[in-house]
Amino acid sequence: MLADTATLTRADDRSGKPRQPVLLAAEGLQKSYGPVQAVKELNLYLHAGEALALCGENGAGKSTIFKILAGEVIPDAGRMTVGGTEYRPVTASQAVASGVSMVHQEFNILPNISVAENMFLGRMEEFSRFGKVDWHKLYAAATALLKRLGINADPRAEMRRLSPSTQKMIELARALSTNPKVLLLDEITASLDHDDAETLHRLMDELRAQGVGIIYVSHRLQEIFRSCTTIEIMKDGAWVATRPASELDEDQLSALMVGRDLADWKRPARHVSSSQMLEVKGLSGPGFSDVSLSVRKGQIVTLAGLAGSGADEILEALFGARAVTSGEILLEGKAFSGTSIAEAIAAGIAMVPKERAVEGLIDTQPIRFNIGLAGLPKNARGPLVDGGREAAQANLGMDMFRIKARSSADLVRSLSGGNKQKVLLAKWFLTDPRLMLLNNPTRGVDIGVKFEIYDLMLKLSAEKNLAILLASEDMAEVIRLSDTVITIRHGRASGVFEGDAITETNLINAML
Ligand SMILES: Nc1ncnc2c1ncn2[C@@H]1O[C@H](COP(=O)(O)OP(=O)(O)OP(=O)(O)O)[C@@H](O)[C@H]1O
To answer: What distance in Å separates the CA atoms of residue 39 and residue 66, rounded to the nearest whole number?
Structure first.
C-alpha cells in the first residue's frame, strides 16, 4: 500500500530537519527487458524543493527509472503518486500534464525547424488560430521564456545552426515551459559548455527555491555536490542507500557506487620515449589558430580548455574531419597532409569523438558490427566481412571495457548511455592505432569504468608506445593522466605545463 504522500517524509531521514511534503513517490517499481531486470523493486521519494541525485554505475537503471517517471516506459509493477494523486502516465504528454518533465541524455530535437517550434514542440496548437500558426505570438512567447531563463538564442533561428550546448538548453527551456512540479535531468551537462552549465546550476537553485523537485543524473560528482541536496545510490536496478549530500564526500560516494575504494588510485611512474609521433606547427583553421604542439610515442598530452575553447576543432582537424587553412602536421617526422578521415585512419590515427550519437555509433546495429566498423579492412575476407573474426574482436572489446550486455549481438540502442560510450572506445582501441585522439572519452562513463579506462590508456601508452592526444574538460582527469598539458583559450594555446606545474590553479588560470 502506498504511503499517504501528503504527509510522508523520508523513512531514512535522521537529520531532524523539518521536511517538505513528498512531491513524487514511487514504490516497488520494476521493469525488465527480456531477461534483463533493469529496475528491481525500487522505492523513490522526492520532496518539494529537493534536488535528488540518482547515482549508480552504467546500466544501474537510472535512465529506465526516468523513462518510467516521464511516461515513456510502462513499469511491470509498482505504484506512483504526484502531489498525493495516483500517477500512471502512459505517454510523455500525460506526464507533462501531471507536472513531470524530462530532459533526455540523448538529443531530442528537430534540426530543420526553428528554435521556437522546438521549444513548444507538441504544443503548437496553443499558438495556432483557425489552423494557422500565429508566428508573432510564438516568437514572443519563446523570446520571453529564453529571456527569463537567461538563455542566449534567436527563437527564429533554425535549430541545426545552434551549438550542441545551446540545443540542449533549448530542450531545457522546452521542459521548463510547462512549469513542471518535477524536473528530470538525465546527464544534461555532458552536452553543455561551461557558461550553459553555470546557467543550469543557477536555474536549479531558483527552481528549488520555488518548490520544484529535481531528480538529477550525472557522472560528474562535483556537480552533484554543487547542486543536489540528497543522494540516492542504486546498483543493478536496486536501491543501495539514500543520504543527505552534506553527509558524503566524493570518495565516499564513489565507494558506495562501485563497491570499492578509488581514493588511492595513483598514476604509475612513467618513462616516455624521446621519439616524436606527432608534431603540429602553426596550425590554423576555423575555430583555432597558430597551434603548435608535439606528442612523443608513449606520451599522453592533453588539450585542456573549457567547453567551446577550440580543443574539439583541433582534434577534428588532426583527424582530417575539419579544414586546415595553414600550418604543418608531421607524423614520425614526415609531412602528413591528411584531408580525409580515411587518410588519417590509414596513417594509424584513431579518434573517439565527443558526440557519440552523431559521430560515433550506428544505434540500430549490433555491438559487434559497431566495434568492427573501424577495423573493417582487417575483418574482411574478400568482399565479405569475416563474421568469426568480427565476433572475436567484439568479445575482446566487451571484456576489455566491461560492456554490460547479454551478447555482442545486442543492438547498441538497447544499451545504457555509458555502455554505448564503452562500445565507441572499444571500436577505436581495437584498431591498434599509433596515435589516439580522445575527445572527453569518459563522458557519461561511471566512476569505476573511468578508472579502468585510465589504467588502459596508461598501459597502452607504456607497453605499446601509443601516443595519446586527449581533450578533456574534466580537471581531475587532466591532472591524473597527463604527461604534458596544453591549455587552450579562444582557439589558441595559452600555456604549457609539465610535472609538478600541472595543478588545478595553474590550469584554470590559463584556461579562463
Ligand atoms: N530498450 C531496451 N532494451 C533492452 N535492454 C535495455 C533497454 N533499455 C535499457 N536496457 C538495459 O537496462 C539496463 C539499465 O539501463 P539504463 O539505461 O536504465 O542504465 P543507466 O543507469 O541509465 O546507465 P548509464 O549510466 O550508462 O546511462 C541496462 O542493462 C540496459 O542495457
So the answer is: 11
Q: Which of 412, 408, 428 is nearest to 420 (CA)?
A: 412
Of all protein residues, the one whose alpha carbon is nearest to atom 27 of ligand 1 is: 417
Separation of CA 126 from chain center: 33
Distance CA 487, CA 499 (A): 14
**CA–CA separation, 107 and 164 (whole Å):** 9
115 vs 247: CA distance, rounded Å: 41
What is the chain's length? Answer: 512
Q: Whose CA is nearest to atom 24 of ligand 1?
A: 58
Q: What is the pTM of this model?
A: 0.79
Contact 479, 504 (CB under 8 A): yes
In the chain, the N- to C-terminal Cα span, in Å, equals: 54
Residue tagged 498525493 (cell numbers): 84
Closest of 328, 274, 54 to residue 183, by C-alpha: 54
Task: Kindly state if the Cβ of 38 falls inside 6 Å of ligand 1.
Answer: yes
pLDDT tens digits, one per residue of 156-208: 999 999 988 999 999 999 999 999 999 999 999 988 888 899 999 999 999 99
CA of residue 13 to ligand 1 center, whole Å: 29
Distance 383 CA to ligand 1 centre (A): 35
At 11-47, the pLDDT tens digits run 334 344 446 789 999 999 999 998 889 999 899 999 9
Q: How far is the CA of 116 from the centre of ligand 1 (A)?
A: 32
Residue nearest atom 3 in ligand 1 by C-alpha distance: 414
Asked whether the beta carbons of 441 and 352 are under 8 A apart, the reply is yes
Computed from CA positions of residues 82, 84, 89, 94, in that sequence, does the dihedral angle turn out positive or negative? Answer: negative
The protein residue with its alpha carbon nearest to ligand 1, atom 31, reads 415
**Secondary structure (DSSP) of 277-345:** EEEEEEEEETTEEEEEEEEETT-EEEEE--TTSSHHHHHHHHTTSS---EEEEEETTEE----SHHHHH
